């Protein structure tokens, strides 16, 4: 397994490094955790933005001069900078860490590496870091305790990273105050966003929570937003030619997002996700994608399609999202390793027994999807994870989104049609109404 290979290599690397003594190091003058706590108290999101040149899952990411990129991060709202220092698989170095810390003397710097010995914390401090990442999976209880003790001596903060419930149980007794919840499966490197809220709900002690991996835009950020205090974002920002304003990039001022479905046109303006239905069972079936300009928010909606047809569509067209239904989830899941999965379901009962850690988002579509029938309020109230509400939604009943505090948006098909055809005017009406609603208008009755 790749992780084992990396750990073995880091053990060899650490043995060759010259480790500075504790007496030679100056503890951090400010504690980063205290800074983050102050931000959280005021509702200010924590943005840890990352500099990395490559990763095992993506290969080479992008080239940007380090100093220029981290200064851009700082100017666009970063609360801290993460720097990869693992050399073989991420092309990082301790010199990168030093360069970043010297360029941004007033901003917390996180050394992101595979820590297997407390002496690596000494190195992190020597090269300017005030934080380190600790991956729970690769450590035992004694090592974890040693890491906390060493970090305390240097007034450094540990971001404790977990990937699954086993990690959570291993770290529970320590009750760390800064938890990173990573959406990536370390065994197969798969990425599923719903792992973040699922794990966050099971952390039962007071702490700050950071969403890690898979945050590539506003919709992804919204899926996690109600469960975390901040985000660690790397690859998505490294791919940007120019660093965006982080709050605007994640659209943090918006409570609700909009998925339009049953589309057959190219230049649809307004929705956050654009659904194209290729189901042979749907009256909205559409598969002529030659004129579609893909922008990363298109959703391939499948139901009753042969697996071969779905694979062909994904091979020919760059869909980043695929919508599947619970009863066919296992049929398609293996073919969707490179796409985000939106799982459509009729009610909360249907989700029982489904491993939601294998999906990225949820759509409550009712018992009669595509028929324009509203979903019973009692069913809506049962949901305790982020979801889009479908089923008879239109611009005149958006108040239904208030029925559940975890509702993150609306999914419409018939509600944006005029005489059976998509109406851009109706779409813009929905966009306007969602935009004009204030956050306090949507405090759900079950929250």
Secondary structure: number of strands: 20
SS content category: alpha/beta
CATH superfamily of the largest domain: Aldolase class I
Count of DSSP H/I helices: 16
Strand order in the largest sheet: 1-4-5-6-7-8-9-10
Q: Domains counted in the coordinates: how many?
A: 2
Mean pLDDT: 93
**How far do the termini sit from each other?**
43 Å
- Low-confidence parts: 438-447
What is the helical fraction, as a range of percent? 25-40%
CATH topology title of the largest domain: TIM Barrel
Which architecture name of the largest domain does CATH use? Alpha-Beta Barrel
The backbone outline, from C-alpha atoms, is elongated
The largest sheet is:
8 strands, parallel, barrel
Fold and architecture overview:
- It is a single chain.
- By secondary structure, the protein is of the alpha/beta class.
- The protein folds into 2 domains: 248 residues, Alpha-Beta Barrel (TIM Barrel), CATH 3.20.20; 175 residues, Alpha-Beta Barrel (TIM Barrel), CATH 3.20.20.70.
- 30% of the residues lie in helices and 19% in strands.
- It has 16 helices and 20 strands.
- The chain has an 8-stranded parallel β-barrel, surrounded by 7 helices. Strands 11-12-13-14-15-16-17-18 form an 8-stranded parallel beta barrel. It has a two-stranded antiparallel sheet with strand order 2-3.
- Helix 13 links the parallel strand 13 and strand 14.
- Helix 3 packs across helix 5.
